[in-house]
Queue: 2 jobs
Job 1
Amino acid sequence: MKTRAIIAVAALMAAVAVPVVAQQTNEEKVVCQLAAKNCLNQVDILQKRVKKLNAEIKKGKKTYSAEDMKKLEQKLQETQELLDKVEGKAPAK
């Protein structure tokens, strides 16, 4: 009985999904692919920026003043928040 119900629901969902996919134009598909690629590129750029900022922060007060360290930490926090948004993670509070 459960198997029949699952099959019926799956068939209904497939019937509804096919027209939606068929309505997407070639232009919309290209835009979607570009957006996905740009998102991946953005993630790579942000990850590199986080690594670079962490490396600079590790140099510490030998290289940077207290004010510069605060700026670096702020930039790191902003970059991490942006990376979390792009990756779809919940912001840490």
Job 2
Amino acid sequence: MTMMKRTIRYVGCSLPLLGATSACANGEEVEPGAPSQTTQQAPAPSLADLSGRIFRTSDLPSSVPPEVPADVVVTVRFDKRGMIVADTGCNKLTGSARVKGGQLSVLQFAGTEIACDGSELSEGWLSDLLLSEPDVALSQGRLVVDNGEVKLTLDEQGS
């Protein structure tokens, strides 16, 4: 298998204005500040709470599109500069992150394009999830990312 590095291709959506709706990469409107069941069940973290932490899935939820391989492991890392780095085993998706009112916003999202067999489907799905301004909740080392369609649970890993 030949590995080839190419250019950045993902673009994110911006933070919603208070009291307004925003259109994101998936074209759906999201009402800012409206709590989902996820944020009602566990405390909403701040970006400082997530900073320096790494989270990884053990299983994908059944709501993931069937084209995404079942054995994909999602890793999400928040660094101390406010950046989020996510991957599904091949390319890294990187962006500037904000968390406000339990809602994650990823700005200036970009990703590498290394040729890996079948990685485009899982990377596209993960990118869509993170760009959808999902609700996030953190409790006992478990991060839940929920956009109303997909509820992804990630467990904290050693840094």
